Amino acid sequence: MSSTTPALRRTNRPLSFLESDGQALAGLSLDSASSSADRQASLGVGDDLILGAWKVLVRLRDEGLIREIGISGYPLPCLLRLSHLLSPAPSSILSYSHSNLQNEAFGGYLPHFPADCRLLTASPLNMGLLVPSGAPDWHPALSDPKNASILPVSRQAAEVAAAWPGGLPDVALGYGLRNLPLPAGKEGVVPVVVGAKNPDEVHQAVRVWREVNESRADDAARREMEQKVRDVWVRGGWEDVSWESPPRAAA
Fold first, then answer.
1. Hey, which of 36, 71, 217, 227 has its CA 20 to 30 A from 30?
2. Does 234 share its domain with 118?
3. Model-level pTM?
């Protein structure tokens, strides 16, 4: 979910949001965009900078350059706080890596976001943590050497899920793509954003979504395997654990 544009990842001046969005639109040969998200929300850069950046995005929306504005990020408490702090309220809020087999905290946060915000979740594979090869080097869990014990737990989860066709990725996709109802009083389910690097992964995601939400093929067996994998994280002491992103600079 992070941008490759340095100004959107880390900046000391809100104006760069205006410059970056303008450059991005020009690079795509567009005059406007349907939505833009303030990704500073997960950077811990301070409320003043985030509020300043938000004002710029509101201006871009008012000028017709973008249709909607929202926020996205990793730390759930930060997203929740900003959802009530920003004015006007975000049109959409995208949380990632908090609705999966290792961390299912997003469901508990759902009722506390503003009622008029569109809520989305992403990364059912938890940024690569829920694959046989384990978390990539850039995963926030690996930013602190003290978290090294998560790697054998991740491998154990993959070993347990190896008995399921498609292994851990297939089990994790099913868990993350199963429809998550919106809070009481709101109709519908929470949309899930899934990344894919090739057509085969797109087809796999579509197939798994249909299995868990339409045909319910092997539903009982799938849920049993999900629970076994979930139990691995519980026994390892890593269930529902989040990490700072980016990591706090050493004093």
1. 71
2. yes
3. 0.78
